[in-house]
Model the fold of this input.
Amino acid sequence: MFDLDRFIADCSTAVRSDRSHKPARELVSRVVSDPTAVVAGLGEPRRAEVQRLYRAADLTILNVVWGRE
Done:
């Protein structure tokens, strides 16, 4: 299951480990490959929006929810 606190910690570690951000990109790719787990962890989207999940000097994590037609 997706755990936001763990995801933030893992992203922070990944960004600090390699300034190219390749490890962070790989981490995000792995996480979003299971969208059901992400929705279970963040909750079902109710409307289109951009949610700031985390912000620091070296890392910002956003949840972008697209609207449906």
In short: The radius of gyration is 13 Å. Helices lie at 4-17, 22-32, 35-42.
